[in-house]
Every structure is written in structure tokens, then in C-alpha cells.
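name: query_chain
kind: protein
chains: 1
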Amino acid sequence: MGRIAKTPTPPYYAVIFASERTEEDRGYGKMADKMVELASRQDGFLGMENANDEGLGIMVSYWDSLEAIQRWKENAGHQAAQERGKSGWYQSFALRVSKVESDRYFEI
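structure:
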């Protein structure tokens, strides 16, 4: 997967997850890789982008429908990762869902 997701013609949805991490890793990296793999096999998944800088992480995942986002939210493996995040990996986090009405992609 490239660093910038190549998404289809809108409309589609973006789930924006911003987080501040705790100091300890305790398996976070392995779980993050597992979640990328799991999400990429989920019906309705379109792509993902991720950036981290000094404890602040932003992950944007793209989905073809609100129903696909709901199925991802209810995925048992994803729910287990969420619980671990709440109990030890994150100091704080925010989750936002947006409908993408327009996009442009440029390669130079």
C-alpha cells in the first residue's frame, strides 16, 4: 500500500483517528500492523493514510459506506484492539467520520 491512498471517485467516507500515545509500546506496533491487515480485508475498505510525530498519531481510513464503517467498528479483532488502546496505549484520542464530496490526487 502506498503512503497516500488512491481512493475512488467520491462520495465515500473518511474515518479520522487522532491519538496521543502513552510512553510504553507494550505490543502497540504489532497490533497496529495487525489492524491494517484486518481492515484491508474488510468489505468496503478503500485505503488508509497514517502519520506520527512525537506521540501524536493521525490515521485516516476510507470506506465506501457508513455501513462498512459500522461493520469495522463491530469487528471483534478491532474491538479488542480498541480496548487495549483505552486501557494502556492512549492518553487521549478523537474519532471523526466525514463524507468526502471532492478529492484530487496529483503525482509529480
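note: The first strand starts at residue 12 and ends at 21.
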